[in-house]
Amino acid sequence: MSDFPYANQYPIHRELPELGTERTVILEQLQTMSNAEDRTWEGGQCSGTMYCGDHDHYDFLNEAFARFSHVNALQRDMCPSATKFESEIISMTLDMLGAGALDSNPVGLVTSGGTGSITHAVLAYREANAARTSRPNIIKPETAHPAFSKAGHLLGVEVRVAPVDPVTTQVDLDWVKRNIDQHTVALVGSACNYGYGTVDPIGELGQLALEYDTGLHVDGCLGGFLLPFGRQLGFDIPAFDFSVPGVTTISADTHKYGYALKGTSVLCFSNIALRDSQYFYQTDWTGGKYCSPGMDGSRSGGLLAATWAAMVSLGREGYLRYARAIFETSAAMQREVTRHGELRIMGNPSFLFSFTSDDFDIYHVNDFLRTRGWRLNGQQYPNALHMAVTRPQTQPGVVERWGVDLADAVTYAREHASDVAQSSAIYGGVVGGLTDEADSFIKLVMADMMDKQSSIPTEL
Ligand SMILES: Cc1ncc(COP(=O)(O)O)c(C=O)c1O
Question: Which CATH architecture has domain 316-447?
Fold first, then answer.
């Protein structure tokens, strides 16, 4: 699909149309666009992003959403249902993440997504330690999501980036230990990370957190709603939740493997004081006493209703059933990768696996796979491709197609090893064969980002 397929198809609204457009016309346009775009993932060839993929599930969630889409969850006197939905979403998530055993009064917050949960966690650590330090830092593995660096940038928290072992892709614990100081307000570990699908040594990070009296955030944005069920099914996944001593916050995205609509995530806190530290109050405002539990003001009652509906409709049995299919499919797809001596899987992954090649640029493999309709995610340092297995891949025939297409892609890569590959790594996908216009746009955005980055003070 080109970058601007609608440019010649529909009117372009650079300003409000003078007269309104017929609803039927609008709905027809939306239907045409969504039908075309859904075809990019429905066949099971797209990594990540479409976690559930069942249109009847989406229809059900949309119905739940529609009942409360006009409701502002900030006005709780008008919507006690939002209190029910939000507290039950949090309670079910805490239970799933092993908080039942804690006697520290664990609590949570529903946020707008993974980045929202991570940013709120960094804010909570900064605020909870405000009396101790005005120069807070957190230590994250290089593989942890950029959302931590973004949060540090926005909130004035220094982010120390720990290297990872190139073979296991797990964080270098000695480096972490050497770089903790009296201003360290939290360590970070991923379960699992976006790039490689590997889980950091959470137990050891927890010990360090306890030893140095600092927090430990586990980023379960991606794996938080899948790994617990994988563990219950007996897959080889280390403990990463609140059962691990030292873990103080966990982010888990309902809008990923929680199979809810886009726009929600849960941030869990091991204790209420940490959560309350980032509450905002302004009691002297002429508009009235204002308080909000997080950074957002108005929030959608519809998203709370739909998230709650997703969790309650699937239940533990549904999550387990989906998890089994996903883990088994991932294992089968990984077996296809290991058939090729030229390909190397990185670390010890789970439902998301990443592979590279020491024989040729792996982007050649991607160049070919794109011609067969695959959409993998690209990485760099070293170049690698990852596949986050979701429910669309569990459909019959997808693994077999993967095996055939991957074999042909390896042959192609071998034959083109001396050429320059077209693909390049842009977060969320692997871009290849860009139009000049799109290519220069991306370069402009990147250059602008680099300018902004370089103005961040290194010493806070
Ligand atoms: C491990 C991990 N953490 C955080 C995020 C950020 O989540 P979001 O894109 O919902 O903000 C992602 C997104 O893929 C992720 O994979």
Answer: Alpha-Beta Complex (3.90)
